[in-house]
Specification:
The chain is built from twelve helices and 13 strands. α1 packs across α4. It is globular. The protein has two domains: about 190 residues, D-amino Acid Aminotransferase, Chain A, domain 1 (2-Layer Sandwich); about 100 residues, no CATH class. The protein is of the alpha+beta class and about 375 residues long. β6 and β7 form a beta hairpin.
Length: about 375
């Protein structure tokens, strides 16, 4: 029932533009109407793809416990305990209470005024990422910058001054029994030169999908993509908002051509439009995407597999990794219910025999 509810909610909000008969044919195969454009059906064989309904249904129960994946603070604490680097957390805010530097020995509760002065002390040019502690897909995320003696909010093409103290006050509990969600404020990481040259305005992360079937000695990486932001997605690399997804050759770390979402983002296009075609170079910077090789690829995969193996209750996880200016792979988030469209836009997951066996084990295919 829950899977059916999520399915209907998505389709009601969808703007695929497909005819009712075509929608019905896709629904019978378990795909959203928009998937015909994303996966280029019927030119490609739907049997090679994990369907949307399978992905929704599996996401609710395939992992034995989703607690760490649903809450960024808990996952961050676990990864730090494993010796894996994390962004510095400036504050955890819940019900109007501000816990500054929660992972430092000097962590303490502060007022909005004190926290504002705390950030000012970092000086001109300092920047932080503000995001919901339990959010996904970049919802509610923005870049907080300190410049010219004031704070400003940067999201997409919009840059505007922000009254930081008023914003912090708005995070207090909602009246009439409701409450605001938790918020994280973390120092923005400086990414490596390779990723800055792709597009400097966003944190350009890798999404690596690991699978771990019961009985297997260790997890494996099923697929990986390099996400790259655009002028429309700053400070994120959100694919549905106008960013790019480029496939990664798992053996070499070489990138293939990037793809945009054909129906979403600020400039959605019809099926067959040029924006749905492979992208060899970044549209804003001109940086080469297709054929570029990710630096330190083996180190990146080692970190992800180490993190995946340290969580014995995980079965299917999408890891978001940013490589720092020092060349250190940093896991920003892990998604127990990872979207697969930005992975399968480059081809169906089920063409890989290991991946197919994994989903057969769980009765999905």
């Amino acid at each position: 029932m829950w899977s059916g509810y999520r399915w209907l909610k998505h389709e009601v909000q969808s703007h695929s533009g497909s005819r009712p008969a075509a929608r019905l044919a896709l629904w019978r195969q378990g795909f959203f109407a928009e998937s015909a454009a994303v996966y280029d059906f019927p030119r490609n064989d739907p049997r090679e793809y994990l369907s949307d309904f399978q992905q929704i249904h599996l996401g609710g129960w395939i992992n034995e416990w989703d607690g760490l994946f649903n809450h960024k603070l808990g996952l961050r604490a676990f990864l730090l305990a494993q010796g894996l680097p994390q962004p510095q957390t400036a504050a955890f805010i819940y019900e109007g209470r501000i816990l500054a530097d929660p992972f430092d020995r000097g962590g303490r509760h502060v007022s909005g005024e004190e926290f504002e002065e705390h950030l000012r002390a970092e000086g001109e040019g300092a920047a932080w990422v503000v995001k919901p502690e339990d959010g996904s897909q970049g919802r509610g995320l923005f870049l907080l910058e300190y410049a010219d003696g004031g704070f400003r909010r940067h999201r997409g093409r919009e840059v505007a001054p922000i009254d930081l103290r008023a914003f912090l006050a708005s995070l207090e509990p909602v009246r009439n029994g409701g409450q605001a969600g938790a918020t994280l404020i973390e120092r923005r990481l400086t990414q490596g030169q390779f990723w800055r040259e792709l597009f400097p305005g966003s944190a350009n992360t890798l999404r690596l999908l690991t699978l771990w079937a019961p009985g297997d000695p260790s997890p494996f990486i099923a697929r990986g993509v390099q996400r790259v932001g655009s002028a429309d997605t700053v400070p994120t690399d959100n694919w549905s908002g106008g960013g790019l997804s480029a496939p990664i050759d798992l053996a070499t770390g070489r990138l293939g051509p990037g793809r945009t979402h054909p129906l979403k983002g600020p400039r959605p296009a019809a099926v067959g439009d040029a924006r749905s075609a492979p992208v060899e170079r970044h549209p804003d910077t001109g940086a080469l995407i297709a054929g570029a090789v990710l630096p330190n690829w083996n180190r990146i995969t080692d970190v992800v597999l180490r993190a995946a193996a340290s969580l014995p209750f995980n079965r299917m996880v999408g890891w978001d990794v940013l490589v720092s200016a020092e060349g250190e792979p940093v896991i920003l988030e892990a998604n127990g219910h990872s979207d697969v469209n930005l992975l399968q836009v480059h081809g169906g997951l089920l063409v890989d025999d290991r991946v197919r066996r994994f989903f057969e084990h769980y009765g999905a295919v």
